[in-house]
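[agent] plan:
  1. take the single chain provided in the ticket
  2. run structure prediction with default settings
  3. attach structure tokens to the ticket
  4. add a short note for the reviewer (M.T.)
[agent] executing step 1
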Amino acid sequence: MEAILEQILGQLKDLKDGQDKTNSRLDRIETRLENVEEQLVMVKEQAIDLTEFKTDTTESLEEIKDGIEFLHHKEQMNEKEIYKLKTRKQFQL
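[agent] step 2 finished; step 3 output follows
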């Protein structure tokens, strides 16, 4: 009977050791998961910042493009006026 009790105690000790190892592994996994979650939050914040930056940059480039188009148009109009003035001047001479 005592041998059976010793065997049962040995098995219980083995189960306890296994449970301790499993708990230790779970603690490490939880720590790693917390780190991953923190990194995910940082990546999300960076993505939001980059999206805002992209929007601002796109708007700025659109304004620059509009300005260049206007200047190009204005240059053409000025060239046309210069041509007209030169033409009139030639006829007056």
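[agent] step 4 note for reviewer: The two ends are 136 Å apart (CA to CA).
[agent] ticket updated
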